[in-house]
Amino acid sequence: MCPRDDCACGQASISVSPPAVHRCPMAEDSGFTDVGPSEDPPGVRNGFPPPPPPAAYRCTLTPELVAKAREELQEKPEWRLRDVQALRDMVLKEQPRLSTRLDDAFLLRFLRARKFDYDRALQLLLNYHASRRLWPEVFRDLRPSAVRHVLGSGFLTVLPRPDPQGRFILCLQPGKWKPSDYPFVDNVRAIYLTLEKLIQPEETQVNGIVILTDYNGVGLSQASNLGPFLAKKVVGILQDGFPIRIKAVNIINEPRIFKGIFAIIKPFLKEKMAERGVDESQPLLPSSGFERERPWSLASSHSPVKSSQNRRFSTFCMGLT
């Protein structure tokens, strides 16, 4: 098990064959590397006792969110731990060589993301780990300090407060990305780390998130870097490989070139996800003062987006229904 209690990397716990070297993605610059089994005495690993087991699951949902989870996700509090154990048993029986966390809190993310359908939750868990094998350049040495240049560019921010439905707003500004500065895969790394942080609170697991994309400034230099092969990988992670509920994808400042970009992405979208894309070309609502708060970010040193841009994001998000 990854030694960081707050790590959401999903790596480790059961493994029949010696696992590959594993770097905890949220372990910033700690320098810790899990080198697998050693010749230490029983109960001791790398000269240190094993980390304590995860704390027993304790529900942190409000009564309102418990009711929402029951209605929308088919999550019954009285059956919750039974359902988690059922998924755990499926992993141990059907995927005994899968190296994964098996604690209640972690498995609950996958059950909630698939409305407590055991088979679909298991497939999502398998996809989650398969992504690491299929796209290793995204997950190699994945930690906040490794994507600080992306966070500092303004490409990605999360607004400080959720919308009226309790959904956090992940704001993407592709026009801020300059292909000459760094490769597109770094943007994917930053998005993935942000999702890992967002999914930790149970409230987000129930409410989901909204993605707001501002295409202002996007031109051929950005669009030409997103081919079908790369688009398929990105959509695969967001749509089928991560335990988060994307409730809406909203687009503002759509350029003429967007039709070409969407034509590349659309073949890989499920019908339900494609229907959740909304073109918000109408004037935004009057300012509500929401823009005065600093956007949340993985990097504590990340500066907020410019006030005019933040105002557009903020007033739009306050009008989401």
Overview of this protein structure:
- With 321 residues, this protein is of the alpha/beta class.
- The chain contains 13 helices and five strands.
- It has a five-stranded mixed beta sheet with strand order 1-2-3-4-5.
- Helix 2 crosses helix 4 and helix 3 packs across helix 4.
Overall number of strands: 5
How far the N terminus sits from the C terminus, by CA atoms, comes to 40 Å
Order of helices and strands: HHHHHHEEHHEHHEHHEH
**Major beta-sheet overview:** 5 strands, mixed
Secondary structural class: alpha/beta
Beta-sheet strand percentage? 5-15%
Q: Provide the helix percentage.
A: 25-40%
Radius of gyration: 20 Å
Strand arrangement, largest sheet?
A: 1-2-3-4-5
Could you tell me the mean pLDDT?
A: 74
Distinct helical segment count: 13
Uncertain ranges: 11-40, 43-47, 276-321
Approximate shape: globular
Q: What's the quick description here?
A:
By secondary structure, the protein is an alpha/beta fold. The protein has helices at residues 63-73, 80-94, 104-113, 118-134, 136-139, 148-153, 184-198, 202-207, 220-223, 228-240, 258-265, 271-275, 307-318; strands spanning 156-158, 168-172, 209-214, 246-252, 277-279.
Keywords:
321 residues; disordered C terminus
Describe the SSE topology.
Layout: H1 63-73, H2 80-94, H3 104-113, H4 118-134, H5 136-139, H6 148-153, E1 156-158, E2 168-172, H7 184-198, H8 202-207, E3 209-214, H9 220-223, H10 228-240, E4 246-252, H11 258-265, H12 271-275, E5 277-279, H13 307-318
Parallel strand pairs: 2-3, 3-4, 4-5
Antiparallel strand pairs: 1-2
Helix pairs in contact: 2-3, 2-4, 3-4
